[in-house]
Amino acid sequence: MNPRRKKRLTIILSVLIGLSVVAGLVLYALSQNIDLFFKPSEIHQGKEDTGLKAQLGQRIRIGGLVVPGSVKRDESSLKVSFKLADMRMPIAFNDADPMVTVKYDGILPDLFREGQGIVANGVLAEGFIIEASEVLAKHDENYMPKELAEDAGKAHTKPSY
Amino acid sequence: MWKWLHPYANPEITYHFTGKLTPWFTWLSIILLAIGLTWALLFAPADYQQGESFRIFYIHVPAAILSMSIYVGMAIAAFSGLVWQLKLADASAAALAPVGAVFTAIALITGAAWGKPMWGTWWIWDARLTSELILLFLYLGVIALHNAFEDKALAGKAAGILAIVGVINIPIIKYSVEWWNTLHQGATVSKFGKPAMSADMYWPFLFCFFGFAFFVAAVTCLRFKTEILSRNSMRPWVKALVKEEIK
User: Fold this and answer.
1) Mean pLDDT of A6-21
2) Which of B15, B49, B185, B236 has CA atoms 20 to 30 A from the CA of A34?
3) pTM value?
4) Distances (CA, A) of B72 to B129, B155, B164
């Protein structure tokens, strides 16, 4: 390789390596802010890596699995409340898990159901309660035809809450 | 290998070589997309939770994967253009940029259309969506720089630097769903390991993916030929070619 090309190659490679290091450091420094949501256990104990805790009255997003049997609907309005637990594989629920109660007044998304992952945006209140203003369903990466899901024993009908 | 590659630094030889490839890519793409899209949109089974809406997967995922692959291809072309000062490498980077931008836009728009009924929102500033939006802006920047200078060599250099710097965004898009908590789900299909969907949903996806990939190849060949012609418009071989066309 002739010296001029070699020089250009070294310049470009060193700029690229330098920039990747900078980007890596920036992302590392921002990592807690890039997370879209808190997990329920992080509301109880603080963020996993930084120990950062959400303050009362702070506007946060919370993400977790809807605990089966915890969804309570108000008879006369759209008000609904449910409990969230940490997402983990394989999916399992335990009464001792740290949980957060979400209170919401509005229409739930199509994919909302018990055992499904959701992300709620709201204000943290006393007693691990979130007064949510927005509830979004988080879908997982698994796709399955109905027949297979029935074989696997998965509920596929949309329950009416 | 260098000996074998050398003739392709000549625009005329590359122009005719690309011209020979184009019909192959076009026909492969038409056949694969016809089979793949019919199979995917009409015959593949509906998802047990999302129902029919999941079919947008067959356009969204190929578009998203290709938007990143095209970028990597464009950056490699820009890199060789900068280091070895190959004019054709710059021309191919310029040919790829708008194709990539369109596929990024398709990925973003189909994603939003799926997100509204499934998640409950068109858009959310999570790591995956934001980094893909940045990819669109990078493409637009590269296109703008290619057109900002009269001198094509200078334009290639400026756009090339932006394209190479932007490569940092690619691993961020790819791993955003693993590094951070995002609303966007993890990868369903990957090169390694079993896809997280059943075989009768996965096969039509493969047809669609390769159909769109050959579509990109065909469109890029056409654009590449046009770039070569416009950059060499003063050369005798181009003039001879045009005279042939007019006759």
Assistant:
1) 89
2) B49
3) 0.85
4) 19, 19, 9
What's the rounded Cα separation, in Å, for the pair A12 and A84?
Answer: 49
CB A64 within 8 A of CB A39: yes
Integer-rounded Cα Rg, in Å, for chain B is 20
Of B45, B179, B188, the CB nearest to A141: B188
CATH code matching the domain that covers A40-151, chosen among 2.60.40.10, 3.40.50.150, 2.40.50.140, 2.30.30.140: 2.40.50.140
Of A31, A36, A156, the CB nearest to B183: A36
d(CA A12, nearest CA chain B) in Å: 8
Q: Note if the bond before A109 is cis, omega within 30 degrees.
A: no
| pLDDT of residue B29 exceeding 70 | yes
Asked if residue B93 lies in contact with residue B159, where contact means CB atoms within 8 angstroms, the answer is yes
DSSP string of A83-116, one letter each residue: EEE---SS----TTS-EEEEEEESPPPTT--TT-
Contacts B158 to A, Cβ<8 Å: none
Give how far the C-alpha of residue A114 lies from the chain's centroid of Cα atoms, to the nearest Å.
Answer: 15
Q: Name the residue type at position A27.
A: L
B122 touches chain A (CB under 8 A): no
pLDDT for residue B5 is more than 80: no
Give the type of residue at B199: A
> Which chain A residues contact residue B121 at CB under 8 A?
134, 136
Supply the DSSP string of B180-198, one letter for each residue.
S--SS---S--SSS--SB-
pLDDT more than 70, % of chain B: 98
* Model ipTM over 0.85: no
User: For residue A10, what is the nearest residue in chain B, using CA coordinates?
Assistant: B83
**Subunit contact A139:B119, Cβ cutoff 8 A:** yes
Cα A12 to Cα A18: distance, rounded to the nearest angstrom:
10
Inter-CA distances, B207 with A94, B56, B90, B210, Å: 43, 15, 31, 5
Shortest Cα distance, chain A CAs vs residue B212, angstroms: 21
Interface check B84 vs A, CB under 8 A: yes
Domain chopping of chain B, boundaries: 25-44+53-246
Backbone angles phi, psi at A152, to 5 degrees: -80, 0
- Cβ neighbours of A12 (radius 10 Å): 18
